[in-house]
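If you are new to this repository, start here. Below is one unmodified record pulled from the training split, so you can see the exact layout before writing a loader.
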Amino acid sequence: MSFLVPLVSSVVAPAVELILVDFHSSSTTFPTFVLSIFVLGFAVGPLLLPPLSELYGRVIVYNATNVLFVVFTILCAVSHNEAMLLGFRFLSGFAGVATISIGPASIADIMPREKRGKAVSLWAVGTVIGPMVGPIIGGYVAEVLGWRWIFWIISIIAGLVTVVALTILRETYPPVLLERKASRLRKETGNANYRSRLASDLGLQELVIRSIMRPSKMLLLCPIVTASCVYISVQTYLIDAFGHHSASVNGANAALRGLAGALIPLSGLDLYKTLGLGWGNSLLAFIALALAPLLWILAVYGEKIRKTDLFKLKL
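And here is the target side for that same chain:
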């Protein structure tokens, strides 16, 4: 799914003209927005889904969002106007981003720290290759079968993956596993004193609110997270640094990445129209160059910054 969902972000690009003809539209914003709105779902989903995985476990979030992704992709295939297609593209991006935003956290659950780098690198290959091969597949399918079959084929493959996931996935998040064990012992022994050592002292309502707010707080109030997310897929560093909140911190990363991916292309045409290809690309390169020292700063001063009282958050 972590390969398939990013693929869907770009797979429709070669078919935009066919969609406009089918909908009898001459919109100038639709070609860009039909791509960006899916990635906008990438920005919204990580603010909600990773915290839910830290409340109720990874597996239930994976399975629920996988099913929803299939449903919304099918609804994209049967859309009969621009608004309907855009709406379900956003919802499919919102649901599909769960595997991307929670994936590194699952790796952190089951892999020792010294092996996480390799594991996350292997996992990340799919998220990088997906958007690259998407237009190739989409162009061929649209030309041979029509643009709707792009979504039908994606939904069939995603459906098969979802069935496999429903069959084989098991919970990996330690606080949820320990709480289930404590609950079972309370029920079996009648002793209400059995309690998970990782359980929170907060009430359910406060716990839910704090969990849902956690990615936004990390992104806006923790400079380590903000700097890392602004510069650059840094999952390994973040999941090592933030332990049991690895899903939330990766959600913050995915949210900012999705927001940038959705909004920057909307201004891309104006950028190149104003500056030309040469200076337009140079401007982006200069911004990347200015941010390059961030990785060195994190390597040298990261721990000291994280331990500064000013930046300590109640997560």
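Two things worth knowing about this chain: Residues 43 and 259 are 5 Å apart (CA to CA). The chain has one domain: 4-168+200-311.
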